[in-house]
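User: tokens in, sequence out, please.
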């Protein structure tokens, strides 16, 4: 096992490049996504083995619904297959699953699979695996503000009592540490509406590697790069 000077408590990953990988290899887009799931499995296992506290993955954004229907359907099918094939191992390894985003807008079979996975692993004490599905950070913040507004309206909260902690407690990530390291694959250098609030002081590592080719060595490279950073949290 590689030696790291410092490991992040919370790693977030934008798993980008499945479609480009498929085109590069002259394969159907769905096969790019399927190959990306293999990379996903190895990164989850390695995060658990290293003792990283939380891993948050951007699986399906609110904007992804605008993609071709066949691609969306393939992604939804992969979602079912992933939880069907992986839930036993994840549970045995004490991984706790949390879904970020609006589950209610998903097809019934996918929604029920996510609810079952969360319920089955709710008491686990190992890696906190957070999967963002039908998720957008701006939408998350708006939903949080609406919850706070309702509490003000019903008198259980006063405007002057609202703090950063109040907002954090109403986000999908309530109770989680802020992101320490954000990794984005495929060479893109933007957040794409992912964890905007939680990444306020995150270290970013952008790699040109397409997600299906992102292996353990690539992950270790990103973790070592994180270990070289001097985190100041805006303190100069």
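Assistant: Sequence out:
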């Amino acid at each position: 096992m590689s030696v790291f000077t410092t490991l992040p408590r919370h790693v977030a990953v934008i798993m980008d490049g499945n479609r480009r990988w498929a085109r590069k290899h002259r394969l159907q887009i769905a096969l790019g996504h399927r190959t990306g799931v293999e990379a996903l499995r190895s990164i989850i296992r390695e995060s658990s083995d290293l003792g990283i506290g939380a891993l948050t993955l951007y699986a399906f954004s609110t904007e992804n619904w605008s993609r071709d229907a066949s691609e969306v359907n393939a992604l939804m099918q992969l979602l079912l297959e992933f939880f069907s094939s992986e839930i036993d191992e994840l549970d045995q390894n004490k991984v706790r699953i949390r879904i970020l985003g609006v589950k209610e807008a998903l097809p019934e079979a996918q929604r029920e699979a996510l609810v079952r996975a969360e319920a089955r692993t709710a008491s686990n004490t190992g890696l906190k695996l957070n999967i963002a599905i039908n998720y957008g950070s701006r939408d998350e913040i708006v939903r949080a503000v609406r919850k706070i507004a309702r509490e003000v309206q019903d008198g259980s909260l006063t405007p002057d009592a609202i703090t950063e902690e109040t907002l954090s407690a109403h986000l999908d990530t309530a109770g989680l540490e802020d992101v320490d390291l954000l990794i984005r694959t495929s060479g893109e250098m933007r957040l794409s509406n992912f964890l905007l609030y939680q990444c306020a002081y995150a270290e970013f590592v952008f790699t040109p590697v397409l997600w299906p080719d992102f292996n353990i060595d690539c992950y270790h490279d990103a973790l070592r790069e994180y270990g070289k950073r001097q985190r100041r949290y805006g303190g100069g």
